[in-house]
Write a structure and sequence with these properties.
Helix content: 25-40%
CATH class: Alpha Beta
Strand content: 15-25%
CATH architecture: Alpha-Beta Barrel
CATH superfamily: Phosphatidylinositol (PI) phosphodiesterase
Shape: globular
Distance between the termini: 42 Å
CATH topology: TIM Barrel
Number of helices: 9
Radius of gyration: 17 Å
Order of helices and strands: EHEEHHEHEHEHEHEHEH
Structural class: alpha/beta
Number of strands: 9
């Protein structure tokens, strides 16, 4: 197990690089690749016509120029939207990508943390089924961890996709969280900094969990993560944050062509 020293902390490029490029989009993932990131995190939802797409929220309202629930819209409706709403100065429109498009764009990315968001039990089950189906089509199963803040999603993943490691994201300052993690045999502990202490992080590590901090977006948060001894740090701003952990990045700026 890693010691949690500065140079050993892996940077998880959150939603691609959400502060630097449109989140959960192919341009955002390509930006993370150009930076030299080796782990990326993104979120998946199921559409009304049974397609797996990469978007964080249950609705398109925050990240696109549209409105509505993802699970009540078709893929063609979703991909007609512009997903650069948070980055208004980004000159090129960005689509909501499918999971398959994302896997293909990230073919050279060693590690991916794929988060299943809260939905109906039926939809979360379909998300896992489609995840297995699409990874089989693309031929990519190595380096993928299925994560969630929803215990039921982890239960479904353990049943339908046991070949993929699992991670539980959330607040670990409650004994119930450790019980859930043990019940669903997770290997990754996504420990929110807002409820974290060094003792909690070290307890999780002593139980064999690889610990990831959410989120590392300021120098002050970086110092806390170092002090607590995390294994990974999720960041929306890897260009700023990675060097503070002693991690070199490629000298690039977001592609805007």
């Amino acid at each position: 197990m890693k010691t949690g020293t500065t140079t050993n902390i892996e940077i998880v490029s959150h939603r691609g690089a959400a502060f630097e490029a449109p989140e959960n989009t192919i341009p955002g993932f390509e930006h993370a690749i150009r930076l030299g990131m080796t782990t990326v995190e993104f979120d998946v939802h199921i559409t009304a016509d049974d397609q797996l797409v990469v978007i964080h929220d249950a609705t398109v309202d925050r990240t696109t120029n549209g409105t509505g629930a993802v699970n009540q819209m078709t893929l063609s409706e979703l991909q007609a939207l512009d997903a650069r709403a948070i980055h208004t100065d980004w000159p090129e429109p960005c689509r909501i990508p499918t999971f398959e498009e994302t896997l293909r764009a990230l073919a050279g990315m060693p590690n991916m943390e794929v988060e299943i968001k809260s939905d109906t039990p039926e939809n979360m089950r379909r998300v896992v089924e489609k995840l297995v189906e699409v990874t089989g089509i693309v031929g990519r199963t190595e380096g993928i961890v299925i994560t969630s803040m929803v215990p039921l999603a982890l239960e479904i993943a353990m049943e339908l996709a046991p070949q993929f490691p699992r991670g539980f994201n959330g607040f670990w300052d409650k004994e119930e969280t450790f019980e859930i993690a043990a019940r669903f045999d997770v290997s990754l502990a996504g420990i929110d900094l807002r409820g974290a202490t060094r003792d909690i992080v070290q307890r999780a590590r002593s139980l064999g969990y690889r610990t990831v901090a959410w989120s590392a977006n300021t120098p002050e948060q970086v110092e806390v993560i170092k002090a607590y001894g995390y294994d990974e740090a999720g960041s929306d701003a890897p260009t700023l944050i990675a060097p503070l952990f002693g991690r070199s990045i490629n000298d690039v700026t977001p592609s805007r062509s």
